[in-house]
Amino acid sequence: MESNTSDNLQKAVSSFKDYEEYLDSKVTPMDLFFLTSKESARKLVEHGHKGTVLSRQEFEQRKAASASATRDHRNRTTTLASSGCDIRDNFLKELAQREEANRTGKMTSLIFIRDVNAAGQEVSGYIDYAHRLQMQDFAPYFSGRKKLVPGPRDLCYYNWTNQATASTSSSNYDVVYDRPRALLFRRKTDGGILNVDPRVHPGQGVRRSAVPSGLYEHVVILDHDSARTRTAV
């Protein structure tokens, strides 16, 4: 019985935007009539004159616990496109290993690919993996039915055959041209810069990996570990 009461209280807390909204839910029209001020009515409720009421600290703790439980549930129920696929290529195996982290926000990976598109044209560019996972079904890529190549809607795209270029910001990154031929990406979460120049360090919390592949001419993956960056800060 006590457990059910606690669970119900937890659900109730999660439905309120903040502590003030929680207090407002316990204020009656009669309170406002006699006290004339919503702030005074809130203080009356908060100090327990209307029965058992959570303190601000208790409310915030329960609110945080509810948010954490929601995140954990979302992480556990994330459906992976790579699940059950017979993945042979090393690059696709690397993507499969990063899929869950990119779907849940633990990591954002930028993929550089240089290869030939379906029209036989040599293309190269940078793909925001987490963004593409949100926009496309990746099962055909992992199963080998479809080939992942950069396009004009990705972060950066260049067609070596017709010299067409394009750059488009994603849900995670803005494209920044610092100076001629200097391509940078700025994270929208913390403003951090990711430098794709192989001659310099890619940035705080970023790891660059050249990935051998039997399907692609050239592949590089740059991973930003969100948790590692928060720890460093």
Automatic annotation (TrEMBL):
It holds the Pfam family DUF4464. May be involved in spermatogenesis. It comes from the Eukaryota. InterPro entries: DUF4464. This is Cilia- and flagella-associated protein 299. One of its GO terms (cellular component) is nucleus. It is found in: Cytoplasm; Nucleus. Keywords: Cytoplasm, Nucleus. Coiled coil: none annotated. Its main location: cytoplasm. It comes from Hippocampus comes (Tiger tail seahorse).
